[in-house]
Structures are given as structure tokens and as C-alpha cells.
Backbone:
């Protein structure tokens, strides 16, 4: 059997006195879609950020495709390129066009020629439904469109895994589905994904597994069907009671 793409083993992290990640053991197989869910402040964002070393951790190990994450340097840049991340805020470069936003990483980090990077960027922008807006600037697009560009920008790096941290929670309600639809398509295309979201419909549609985090610990994990209909722990029952 092939090894899991992402392996977190006994990962611990503190922010001062706060033990924000406690003995986290999490494996994500190639092609798997894992939903990370839990109360505000439970450590979901920190866990995602730790996977691609935007945060350090004190003990344990994290491997991506069998490779341990280096602390810093060129290897880290290359490894980080394998781990795409989409945040709640879209973080596009305001003074660059949509096309430039998507080609920048591939040219600088992956060493692609400009023409090749642009060809690929246009394909990806078509895929997320933004093809006709390639020459606009981010501020000329809606929030939902900007988030789709952010997804295309991540995909342009050919990541092995994509992390999404509440990608729709900053969007107006009518724009949520246009972003979720892109993520559903991505999941069905076989992309390995870790998604922090409270969007149950999305979770039921594409998730292989729901991982419930509370106070820095993985409390339970199950299929979406089982987790949402029959949570085992008091903490999960309490949490679901508040959001459902
Ligand atoms: P979630 O994404 O589940 O809401 P976070 O991972 O953002 O949770 O935060 C987990 C806990 O760590 C919270 O109590 C938060 O206040 C704290 N925290 C997050 N980032 C920092 C930081 N840079 N410094 C200190 N504490 C932090
Ligand atoms: Mg968060």
C-alpha cells in the first residue's frame, strides 16, 4: 500500500501557555478529502498552517509525500509549493492583473517560461470560470470571483495537496456556492484536500472523512454521514447542536 500523502505524527505546539495542538496524529491519503471542523479557537487554522510550516511546532513530525518539512530555506519553498493554501481572505496582489496573480508563482518558484505559465494560467482560470476576466485587477472582481482566482493561483503551482481555511466564510451568501462548486469539481478530479469549513452540504457531498477538533485535540473522526447524524463525544454533540 502506498504511504499517506500527509502524515502528522504526535505534533505538539504551544502559543505561550496555550497548548494549541495536542498530540495531533492525522494521515491524509492521496485523493482523500478531509473536512476539519470544530469550535472557534480549537486550533483548525493553526493545524493547517502547521502543515505547510507557516507555523513552527515543538515536537512530532510532519511529512508530505514522505518528505519531512525542513525548517527553512530553499527546500521549504519547494515543499511549500507542493502544499497549496487558500485562506478566508483572498490575498491577491492588488496591483497585479488576475493573469499575473496566477503566473507569478509558477515563473518565480517553479521556473516556468512566461508564455507557458500564461497558457496554463488561462486554462486554470477557465476551469474556475474566470477566463474572460484575466486582464482585470482583483478589485474589479466580486469576492466569490477573487476566491476562485485564489484557487486557480494555488493550482498553478501543481500542488500535491490543497489546504482550505474557511474559504467561503468571508463571502456574501450568494457567492458561497460558486466557490464550493469549484471545490467540488476539484475534489472529484482527485485532488487531495484538507478543508476547514462548516458547510455541511459540501462536506456530505465530497468529504471522505470529517475530523472534529476541540481545544487542540482530535476528539473524533468519521464519515460525514456518521459524524453529522451520530456524533460520539459530548463535545461533538454540543458543537453540532449549536451549528445545525
Ligand atoms: P480556529 O481556526 O479553530 O478558530 P486557531 O488555530 O486560529 O483556531 O486558534 C487556536 C487558538 O490559538 C486560539 O485560542 C487563538 O487565540 C490562539 N492563537 C492563534 N494564533 C495565535 C498566535 N499567533 N499567537 C497566540 N495565540 C494564537
Ligand atoms: Mg480559523
Residues:
Amino acid at each position: 500500500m502506498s504511504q499517506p500523502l500527509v502524515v502528522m505524527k504526535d505534533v505538539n505546539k504551544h502559543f505561550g501557555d496555550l497548548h494549541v495542538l495536542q498530540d495531533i496524529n492525522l494521515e491524509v491519503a492521496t485523493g482523500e478529502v478531509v473536512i476539519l471542523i470544530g469550535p472557534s479557537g480549537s486550533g483548525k487554522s493553526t493545524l493547517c498552517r502547521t502543515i505547510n510550516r507557516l507555523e513552527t511546532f515543538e515536537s512530532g513530525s510532519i511529512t508530505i509525500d514522505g518528505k519531512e518539512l525542513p525548517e527553512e530555506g530553499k527546500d521549504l519553498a519547494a515543499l511549500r509549493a507542493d502544499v497549496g493554501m487558500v485562506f478566508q481572505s483572498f490575498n491577491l496582489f492588488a496591483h497585479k492583473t488576475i493573469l499575473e496573480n496566477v503566473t507569478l508563482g509558477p515563473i518565480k518558484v517553479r521556473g516556468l517560461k512566461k508564455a507557458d505559465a500564461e497558457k496554463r494560467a488561462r486554462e486554470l482560470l477557465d476551469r474556475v470560470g474566470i477566463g474572460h476576466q484575466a486582464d482585470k485587477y482583483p478589485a474589479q472582481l466580486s469576492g466569490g470571483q477573487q476566491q476562485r482566482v485564489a484557487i486557480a493561483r494555488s493550482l498553478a503551482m501543481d500542488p500535491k495537496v490543497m489546504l482550505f481555511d474557511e474559504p467561503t466564510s468571508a463571502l456574501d451568501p450568494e457567492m458561497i456556492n460558486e466557490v464550493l462548486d469549484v471545490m467540488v469539481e476539484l475534489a472529484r478530479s482527485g485532488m487531495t484536500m484538507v478543508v476547514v469549513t462548516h458547510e455541511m452540504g459540501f462536506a456530505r457531498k465530497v468529504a471522505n472523512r470529517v475530523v472534529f477538533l476541540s481545544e487542540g485535540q482530535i476528539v473524533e473522526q468519521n464519515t460525514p454521514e456518521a459524524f453529522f447524524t451520530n456524533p460520539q463525544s459530548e463535545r461533538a454533540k454540543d458543537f453540532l447542536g449549536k451549528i445545525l
